[in-house]
Amino acid sequence: MSLSDIPWNHFGPINHLPTRHHSASGLYPQHPHSSAFLDHGFTQLSSAFYHPNPHFFFNMNTLSTDEMETFQKLSNEFQANVQGPAVSARQSSGAIAVEYANADPAFVTKTNALAVTHPLSRTMKGDGNCGWRAVAFGYFENLLNLQNMLQVHRELVRIKSLNVLLDQTGQQEHLYEIFVDATEGVFNQISEAIQNGIQDEGFLVNAFNDEYNSNAIITHFRLLTSAWMKLNPHRYQAFLSLPLDQYCATRIDTVRTEIDEVGLQALVDGVIEASGFAVEIMYLDRSEGEVVTPHLLTPTRPTAATICLLYRPGHYDLLYPAEPTVNMEPVVNYQYAMTSNYSPWDQGALAFDVNTSLMSIPNLMMDPSFGMAPSPMPAAPPSPYRVSPPLEVYQSPMHASPPPPPVSLASPPPPPRMSAPPPPMSSLPPRSSDGPQIRLNPLVMKPNLSHSLPVTTPFKNSPYNQAHFQNQDFEPIHWEPSDSRR
Amino acid sequence: MGSQKRIAKELAELVESPPQGIVVRLADESNLYAWNVYMDGPADSPYYQGKFLLNLSLPIEYPFKPPTVNFKTKIYHPNVTNDDKGSMCLGMLRADEWKPSSRIHAVLEFARQLLAEPMPDDAIEGRIAEQYKNDRKRYDEVAKEWTRKYAIES
Asked: Are A253 and B65 inside 8 Å of each other by CB?
């Protein structure tokens, strides 16, 4: 993809986290190439000139050389005191919303929406490597989640083959091999985990919290990115304000320089893209809109995994989207279709216009007011950037052939997940204008049976379901292809 | 650990084919992280014919942090502290400019080049830098004098 697609304007006025760290031992004067602090100081200085309060007036001339040296030394030695692990455990994205509770309304709206669409997040330490670390960790984590030995092996071979790029750009093997070794170590850990059936990513978190390991992997990814850029200068030079070699030397090859848009695109292009994974950034800023601004760094294509980054000016974290397609699958329907001798049910029981996502809320269907709702409500605001919106509406059984009892094939099979938008409401059967907006099971109307509303029985996870192991009359479901696949 | 593997390889390379005018030895055979560097003063510099001993010390985080270089032989130079530490910290030796892909070979060449061409704009010793820029003759004299006094065995 082209760099021109990158939204360059997503820089809000806030800057939560330090993006530069001057960790050099202090010597005076500052080297001209690393004068970020001085620039910053002068900005403050000029604004001080216009400050109405004379006490704020600050004049360089009043400082003695010794004082200036002292300040210079302090600034050079400054290292932000960033707490916390390099990579945190997964945590609720609600914490991000809480962080912004008193901030600009744009942030409040967006962070609240974010907590719904991406309920989990993982914090990266803001030590100058967060963007690099987020991508690298996300890459390995997705590889673990896919649980595919073959793919892990293929990726290891691919990443190691990228050594050619390093050789082509004059890097020497005896200098870079320890970085490649560290990366390979993580691949091996993942293979081992998959072999042992381990899905928990705790060992990856540990690997990235080991300082040497983490530095080595990030340096490996940095060097690959740098080499990739040098070998494909035409793709990047136009976006750089300085010669590409100099850019790589001062921004990519260093130890703690934060990644910028161009560097991130090059990292994705050169190292990640060939894995087939997608990389998506959610920009959290004060731009217009109700939700964070998404941006896909990889070509649009079907993908098995997505590394989802949260970007706030100067900082990257990882995000984990909700998995609505899994929860909203009409499981009830499948279950029903699988049983042929399921006595407590009659076909009327399935005749609800059931919103499958709402059905997962216990007792909701008991609420009489629900029946009065004009239409099924989506459980969550549909996320605007999802290629395939989740299936939100239960397919009504109207299209099926007259269902004989039992109701084995009462509804048509659910549409493939990657298909079109949710079925329009017009596809629902016509309703009578009077009476409740749902067609109730006749049993509901019998007062004696109200304690055992059949509405609860279809829940797969309910002990009222005969197919649930805690049910008194537990009876496992027997799947009979002849019945369900007619 | 990876860093030892790399240090060992770099040391082997430097012992086998050192940069011009430089000899490298471990200060202590049991410690890979402290090196003695013997550096000849470059020709066409006031340090010519001097033999300077430098300590090169590798941090435990190497190569993610740069090595530190100290002149153990006293030297009159704008970029070397005029104290018993003799420290030198500029350019690639600064932590924020250091690249993990740099090699010690380059560090040593950089240090020797600095003897031939001081960088007065990045000076640590302001007065020597002033003198270097404004009164080169006097600077040369003092630097030669110090070289004779401290760096040449009689």
From this structure: no
Chain A: residue whose CA lies nearest to B102: A175
Q: What is the mean pLDDT of residues A84-104?
A: 91
**Chain A residues within an 8 Å CB radius of B100:** 179, 215, 219, 253, 255
CATH number assigned to the domain with residue range B2-151, chosen from the 4 options 3.10.110.10, 3.40.50.150, 3.40.50.2000, 3.30.70.20: 3.10.110.10
Q: CA nearest A213 in B: which residue?
A: B2
Annotate A358-380 with three-state secondary structure.
HHCCCCHHHCHHHHHCCCCCCCC
Full DSSP string of B41-98: PPTTSTTTT-EEEEEEE--TTTTSS--EEEESS----TTS-SSSS-EE--GGGSTTT-
In-domain check, residue A396: yes
- As for how many domains chain A has, the answer is 3
Residues in chain A within 8 Å Cβ distance of B32: none
Are residue A188 and residue A265 in the same domain, yes or no? yes
Is A131 in the same domain as A178? yes
pLDDT digits (tens, 9 = 90+) for A16-53: 444 444 433 333 333 333 333 333 333 333 333 444 44
Domain annotation covers residue A121: yes
Among residues of chain B, what percentage have pLDDT more than 90?
A: 81
Among all residues of B, which ones are annotated catalytic? 89
Contact indicator for A96, A114 with CB cutoff of 8 Å: yes
User: Residue A22 CB: number of other CB atoms within 10 A?
Assistant: 21
Domain interval for residue A437: 330-486
Considering the domain architecture, whether residues A456 and A350 belong to the same structural domain is answered as yes
Q: Chain B within 8 Å of A176 (Cβ-Cβ)?
A: yes
Contact B89 A27 (CB under 8 A): yes
Confidence of residue A433 (pLDDT cuts 50, 70, 90): low
Asked if residue A432 is part of any domain, the answer here is yes
| Prediction ipTM score | 0.90
What would the two tokens of residue A195 be?
């072999």
Q: Nearest-CA distance from B108 to chain A in Å?
A: 16
CA distances from A405 to A341, A408, A466 (A): 9, 7, 18
